[in-house]
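Whiteboard transcription, Tuesday session. T.W. wrote the structure tokens on the left side:
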């Protein structure tokens, strides 16, 4: 499995550092609002990544943090006049419901920043003890970027000629305004009731230190893989590397991967520009989670993707074609023509998550399944869906019931409609004798192989 590493800017083989397990850290949501589908482009990309890792027989330990204290959450909670934890809980709950709707597999750990303040303070203390961080006049603690020679390696920028020497208290700034960045922010009146005691007085962690502390706590000082949207690359990920490596003296992360933005009319979809749709907006308009997932994962993750409703319409049609073909598919050993499409699919996903080519292989399978009027290709669809997570198998499973069993089921349904319970029980026994189990529910009979 090859992936493009943002750090080396090359395709590289992804092989676990230890235990056949990929240790993956994914920057999670800032829970101050409902996540928009731009955010979900990042989370679906990471979901496909984790599925392809498992598809290749590796194990995974994924950590996704919840940023529940930062400039934005504090501002939101104080404006609403509610406690920070109450304010963020609404959006945490909504986030997990949204993940389900998009068929995103859960991560192994979801650490919340507010549960890890001691770990963050300890990491800042290490940096202060090493002389890399210092406390400024206002009480905040800053990372001295001149003390970390590797600074700028991820963003591929030589900062020596650009460094302004300014300090940045805000979490976000651009490459032209690099300066010492905040590790611990001294309390100020706009923080209201939010704050923790520390060796540097009352305050709160900066956003960047949150991820360094939580990733190393759960994945160790050196781990395999770290991802996020491309906007996270600088300064957030650059600062994560600086904080971690300056503290431990060890390499932090082997491979970095970043997805391109979801855009609207050529601009990044974002809360601040106001050009966003939340997942809820689209579900309310009648689109389904799998249609939205299909649109988000259909483009290559490193290519720009422009959001348009016509793409959702196309997704609906495409998925209907897949459903119709899957309905004709039966279990059993796949024929050569189907295995070839699976081989193409495997090649595509292992080439830096080449989902456009993977979908092409899926549709070639759909086309040939239709041309053959069906065939034992159900397992091929299932194998592809381990990565894609968009195929509906309910009807195929029903369709896989053999004709003689179906006849008995129909006779049994008629007997039950006539309240002939003795005949119904006799037919259940007959079906069981042929290796199938029938169950009754409000919606009628369901039948599975025993
Ligand atoms: P945030 O909640 O702003 O910290 O963002 C959470 C994740 O969504 C990060 O990995 C961001 O890089 C990513 N993200 C934000 N906006 C977009 C977008 N328009 N397209 C793709 N990813 C995005
Ligand atoms: Zn992060």
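and on the right, the sequence the group agreed on:
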């Amino acid at each position: 499995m090859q992936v493009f590493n943002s750090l080396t800017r090359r395709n590289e083989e992804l092989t676990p550092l230890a235990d056949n397990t990929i240790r993956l850290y994914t920057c999670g949501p800032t829970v101050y609002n409902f996540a928009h589908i731009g955010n979900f482009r990042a989370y679906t990309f990471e979901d496909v990544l984790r599925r392809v890792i498992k598809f290749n027989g590796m194990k995974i330990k994924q950590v996704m943090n919840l940023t529940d204290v930062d400039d934005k959450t504090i501002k939101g909670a104080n404006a609403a006049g509610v406690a920070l934890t109450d304010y963020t809980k609404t959006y945490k709950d909504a986030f997990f419901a949204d993940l389900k709707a998009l068929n995103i597999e859960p991560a192994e750990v979801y650490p919340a920043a507010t549960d890890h303040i001691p770990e963050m303070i300890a990491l800042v203390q290490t940096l202060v003890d090493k002389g890399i961080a210092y406390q400024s006049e206002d009480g905040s603690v800053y990372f001295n970027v001149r003390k970390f020679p590797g600074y700028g390696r991820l963003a591929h920028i030589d900062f020596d000629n650009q460094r302004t020497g300014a300090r940045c208290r805000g979490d976000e700034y651009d490459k032209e305004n690099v300066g010492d960045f905040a590790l611990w922010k001294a309390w100020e009146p706009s923080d209201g009731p939010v704050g923790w005691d520390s060796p540097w007085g009352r305050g709160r962690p900066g956003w960047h230190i949150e991820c360094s502390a939580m990733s190393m706590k759960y994945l160790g000082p050196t781990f395999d893989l770290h991802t996020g949207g491309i906007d996270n690359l600088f300064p957030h990920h650059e600062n994560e590397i600086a904080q971690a490596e300056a503290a431990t003296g060890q390499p932090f992360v082997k491979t970095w991967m970043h997805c391109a933005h979801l855009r609207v009319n050529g601009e990044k979809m974002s809360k601040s520009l106001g050009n966003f749709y939340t997942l809820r907006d689209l579900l309310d308009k009648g689109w389904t989670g799998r249609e939205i997932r299909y649109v988000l994962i259909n483009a290559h993750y490193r290519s720009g993707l422009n959001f348009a409703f016509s793409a959702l319409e196309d997704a609906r049609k495409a998925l209907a074609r897949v459903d119709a073909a899957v309905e004709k598919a039966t279990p059993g050993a796949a024929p050569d023509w189907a295995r070839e499409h699976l081989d193409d699919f495997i090649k595509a996903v292992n080439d830096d998550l080449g989902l456009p080519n993977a979908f092409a292989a899926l549709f070639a399978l759909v086309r040939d399944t239709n041309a053959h009027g069906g065939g034992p290709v159900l397992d091929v669809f299932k194998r592809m869906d381990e990565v894609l997570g968009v195929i509906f198998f309910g009807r195929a499973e029903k369709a896989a019931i053999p004709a003689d069993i179906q006849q008995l089921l129909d006779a049994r349904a008629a007997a039950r409609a006539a309240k002939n319970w003795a005949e119904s029980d006799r037919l259940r026994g007959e079906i069981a004798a042929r290796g199938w189990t029938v169950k009754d529910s409000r919606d009628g009979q369901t039948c599975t192989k025993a």
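Someone added at the bottom: The mean pLDDT is 94.
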